[in-house]
Amino acid sequence: RYRELTDSTLTARAKAELERQTEFDIWPIARPIAPFLAASAEAAEAEEHRAAVVAAGAAGVGTVANNTGPVAAARKGGAAAPPPASSTTATSGPVTAASAAPASHKLLSLPPAVPPRPQLLIMTDATILEAAGGVGTLANVTYLNLHGNGIRRIEGLQACPALRTLVLSFNELSALEGVDELVHLERLDCGFNMIKRIERLKGLDNLRTLELNNNLLFRLEDLNALKKYTPALACLNLRSNLVCENKSYRGLVLRRLTVLCFLDGVPVSDADRA
Q1: CA dist 82 to 66, 73, 85, Å?
Q2: What integer best gives the mean pLDDT of the chain?
Q3: Is the pLDDT confidence value at 108 over 90?
Q4: What is the 3-class SS of the chain, one letter each residue?
Q5: Are the C-beta atoms of residues 175 and 200 closer than 8 Å to each other?
Q6: Cβ(191)–Cβ(213) below 8 Å
Q7: Distances from the Cα of 265 to the Cαs of 37, 254, 260, in angstroms?
């Protein structure tokens, strides 16, 4: 079984190295993929058989058109020669994991088939409670993850005063709104949206992490809102926004946010503030 799984896939150098490791047993590692390799071998054999049938059919059409071959011989009174044996029948042996390796490689190279995720689109009390996972009431929600749901507007969170973490990345938000009443909020992730302004953050005195990467932010003036309304902000991520291309960007952020520890994923040192 060891040779069956390795001989057709490993280079000569790798096989020689493994052969020296006499006590190494690959079967416990390879056991989970053995059914997959066997299924791949069956699929490869079926495909070879189908191709051989198609090729044989095409050859038969050619002999009739040229008035030669077994059909023409039968018409002239001669004995028709038996059809050639299928190459698949003559050459294919028992299906092994080694023979399945090329087919399995082909299957593994294909992109994964990911089923589409149902989208919420609108934040309602019911969808918030479902996403929060059995907390009972909206007042008990402290963590809420609604990423990748096609949401275009932040709403319905006024009933979640205890919320501490809010994840709304990979949606279709165009503005920050509806979060100014979340006085206990510590982390806000709105990356990968279409937000153009940093605004409506009044009341977020406890916010420590703000992620707005991969949006449409372009104004340096928006940094004033962070200084005014998020005094405890320690981690800020604005990567992949137009505002980051400004030469004054990093220095201005560090002067505005004096307690910042991480900017765009990079730790802030004393030398950065000098």
Answers
A1: 18, 11, 9
A2: 78
A3: no
A4: CHHHHHCCCCCHHHHHHHHHCCCCCCHHHHHHHHHHHHHHHHHHHHHHHHHHHHHHHHHHHHHHHCCCHHHHHHHCCCCCCCCCCCHHHHHCCCCCHHHHHHHHHHHHCCCCCCCCCCCCCCCCHHHHHHHHCCCCCHHHCCEEECCCCCCCCCCCHHHCCCCCEEECCCCCCCCCCCCCCCCCCCEEECCCCCCCCCCCCCCCCCCCEEECCCCCCCCHHHHHHHHHHCCCCCEEECCCCHHHHCCCHHHHHHHHCCCCCEECCEECCHHHHC
A5: yes
A6: yes
A7: 42, 14, 11
Confidence check: pLDDT of 147 > 70: yes
Q: Look at the block and give the residue holding tokens 């703000």.
A: 210
Angle, helices 34-65/97-108, rounded to nearest 10 degrees:
90
Please tell me the pTM assigned to this model.
0.59
Could you tell me the CA-to-CA distances from 199 to 153, 182, 243 in Å, in that order? 14, 14, 15
The structure tokens listed for 254 are 């560090």
Residue 207: what pLDDT?
A: 97
Structure tokens at 213: 């990467």
- Cα 95 to Cα 2, 92, 184, 262: the distances in Å are 15, 8, 62, 56
